[in-house]
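Dear Dr. K.,

Following up on our conversation at the group meeting, I've run the structure prediction for Lactose permease from Lentilactobacillus buchneri subsp. silagei CD034. I'm pasting the input sequence below exactly as I used it, so you can double-check it against your construct before we proceed with anything downstream. Let me know if the numbering doesn't match what you have in your notebook.
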Amino acid sequence: MDAVQKKDRRKNFWSIFNFAFANIGGSAVYMTFGTYFMVYVTSAMFTGVPKAQANKLIAMITGLIFIIRLVEIFIDPIIGNIVDNTNTRWGKFKPWLIGAGTISSLLLALLFSGIFGLSRVSATWFTILFIPIFITFDIFYSFRDVSYWGMVPALTEDSHERSLFTAAANFAGFGQNIVTIIIVPVVTYVTFFFTGKHNEGQPGWTAFGILIAVVGIICSLVVALGTHEKQNALRAVTKKKTSLKEMFWALAHNDQMLWTAFPYLIYGFGNAATAGLMFYLFKYVMDKPGLFWITGLIPTIAGFFTSPLYPIINKWVTRKTIYAVSMCSMILAYILLIVSTDNLVMVVTAMILYYVPQGFIFMAVILTLTDTIEYGQLKNGTRNEAVTLAIRPMLDKMSGAISNAIVGWVAVAAGMTGTATAASMTPGGISLFKLVAFWAALILHVLALFIYVFKVKISEKKHAEIVDELQHKLAVEGISDNSDTETTTSEKAATNSEEANVEVAAPVSGVRVNLADVVDEHDHKGLPGNGIGIQPTEGKIYAPFDGQVVLLFTTKHVIGLRSDDGLEILIHVGLGTVNMRGEGFINHVDSGQSFKKGDLLLEFNRDKIQQAGYKDTVLVLLTQGDKVTQSDYTQEDVVSHGDELVKVQLKK
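The predicted structure tokens came back this morning:
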């Protein structure tokens, strides 16, 4: 058992590591484009262009980005639906991660080159080319981002394991903080190397765009090649393609997804405005652009603690509480920034209160959204993995659009463009800056806090109950893979005319018990259904025939099997053991895995089950009531695993 546990932990570690590693590049690309593209546009893209013309081009780019991001309200869910309907030999997500990740990274480098310097040569041709290049970049980046976060529910259906994947990915989000730390030194150094000037010039921005593009491509390859989608029954049962109409209906009727997304959008608006203007705070308000690296260092250090700490804290504190405390910290940060922006100690203190809790907020939101997938599946009968998790990137990009629009507008309105300095700032310009960056953001954060706390109802406990209900519903209704919907009427008629005789061996050694005589955890006697019980004398479950695993509960106490002849059974270990949440159980197979008769499938600790006050009786249940025409159970009082347990006549 120890060797199996070590192997599983090692496999899970590398899966989490590879998934997380990818977000170094993903977050770096997002930060580079979402925050610093407008800094590049306003400060270097149009160097040498007459000021009036440069301002028009800045306004054009600002307006274009804003409009496209608003259109993405509809585009991102469609992208998620395309990803959800993808079915290849490499899985649902990998083709998009590699293809879209590579293309979007290359186009990022092109944009930061000013389209090979065209921005300073021909305004007309630059405008003609910029629009399709930007739109193409944005679409492919969306495919990459939606595929990345959409993988989480495909990697595991367990809420705690999801928190580990998400925490690791959020931890690796320090890629965006590294961008903040190195952007000024790298851009300035490369500019000086090529021009001899100590400023942030075009050569430096071009080099920086290429650097981030290379990192983005490498990280997309790592996550695509280093993770594995789990093919379980909860996913397979809703594997058929979903139309756009069905998708939007399902999203509109998933109230918990909507109530989670709405406050995150409001929070994002305020946060994006502040983050986008932070560079201007240090350069034009405080006159300390050389200290801007602090805004990258603080979240980087915080990320080394917040992401690993989240799963630990979440064991004792609910994510709603974590979210509320974190939001209060950010609200306090805004108050400090409003009171004083000329005191460096106050500003740094505010930065700590502002940046440190953001990781906790992100974790709480992304895990709540992930858990609404099963909520929507139970409520609406539709499972939308990538679509649901496309909501968060969509909201981030909407926030980014607001950020870009605000940065562009504030920069022009407050005179924070081109060769302007802190000395040239007017009191009106500073007041406008504070109103947008701090006051408006403060109000939005307070509103987001109240909405999340009072309207989001799906907790960790509620999600566990939903998964249990889904799995039990699936067990009762049958565990067939509903993805194959192409069988013709004539094929079905021919198939139903055939019958198969299937022999099921005892999966465990013990004493045979009729279902009518089984006593459950509440001391009630008798269970319904077609099956048989075994009072085990050992803690191992073996394969009763050659076949495939089609269902494995997250609690590991129920496993669904399909024989090569098409017979489906459930092996239910213990009564009341669902409440043990997998404690004392070790699975040796996963959903979708094939096996041979006699292979070890599962181990369970009988002592732990009994100490917890539950029954360790093993049930073998036939789930295809309409197809099973006859079942003859052994009359032997004692069986050993491998002995004949039941002969089943099955309509194929």
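Two things stood out to me. The radius of gyration is 29 Å. Residues 481-496 have pLDDT under 50 and may be disordered.

Best regards,
J.T.
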